[in-house]
Amino acid sequence: MSTRAAFDDLATWATGQLRGEEVLLASLVGETTDFVRFNHGDVRQAGSIQQQDISIELIDHHRHCSASVPFSGANDVDRRRLGSTLSTLREQLKLVPDDPYLAFNTDPSSSEKMTDSSLPDTADAVQRIRSAAKGRDLVGILATGETVRAFANSLGQRNWSSAGTFNLDWSLYLQADKAVKNGYAGLAWNDEAFGRKIQWSIEQAEVLKRPPITVDPSGYRTYLAPAAVEEIMSLLAYSAFGLNAHRTKRTPLLKLMSGEAELSDQITIAEATAGGVAPDFQSQGFRRPDSVTLIDHGAHVGHLVSPRSAREYDVTTNGAESSEMPESLSLEPGSLSSEAVLDALGTGLYVGNLWYLNYSDPSACRTTGMTRFATFWVEGGEIAAPVNVMRFDDTAYRLLGDRLVALTDEVEVRLDTMSYGARSTGSFRLPGALVEEMRFTL
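Given the sequence above, the corresponding structure tokens read:
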């Protein structure tokens, strides 16, 4: 029996075990993944994992309890585990208070999202990576395979989402603390695209051989590559776009909401579920629209609304999880040709990555962090020298506001590399950003 059929069968069986007005929600997280770790441009560790877990929530009127159990796909084993867990949850329900903000979908809306993909054979991908490294010290990890998310409830709703993705996260290591970081991820492997990324890393590594320079703390014209933009957007994603954070005044975009600060009219941000690999449903069974616009040409226009926030603030949910964090965040591209970035930068800093970001003043959306890996000084549109590690401290209202010169005309797909517990289905679609002045303090 396929995973999908076995999950559906188990949900149907569990529905028959309910008593009175009990309702059951079940969410499946699964993956079949090959992991390959590289060092010195060769394989140092390889393995595969196939895992599936079910999170169940038992609801009785306004009380609910939840638990997770492994899912084997074997009917007798799974029914025994789930039956025992239901009995435990039923006892726990006697002890928990009513939840005034409990919300789950009572209007069944089944769906299927099968993301088209064309993954390379893992052995072939490994050979291509080894060949592309050309004897250099390539250090990194390849994760490739299928991820699955599913939902079922005792009301008859069934949702299924699957996607095959690969994610190669690597650095070309030179010596001491000198390295160039890069990544290649997506749904379909393209040798030409991968070759361009490797070649760019090789060229950057060659520049790292030059004596590094230290620039004085100041403001500099700066180009932020998509990987650097991702770090800024990732920090924003934690608390900037949720309804609850806005209503409780905890969002770092508070000044944007109040009209005290602005973002550039070049900035349009959306939760673009249709273009990502995350499921189009969430763990209480609510469906997600194809896209939710959050920032439209610099103006705040929307929130991510979880079922609990919807109940608390008497609005309609748009299928966000309880964290109200985007899972398929998209920043629309601009007009700057990606091939003309260095010419457009002229003289200033090329920043490939940012690290260790945090808020130095959350209410002002002021962020601090470090450059690491390859950051370069550019003179007259040509990379001149590597730059020693620097600390920046600046606000989104400058970097994405009045100091933003342009966004590149191409976006890069950035898949979340997190695999703690299970491979993430989070993703970003981001352009690079040219900034007139970025403040560096150390």
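The chain has two domains: 3-208, 218-440. Try to locate this feature in the token string yourself.
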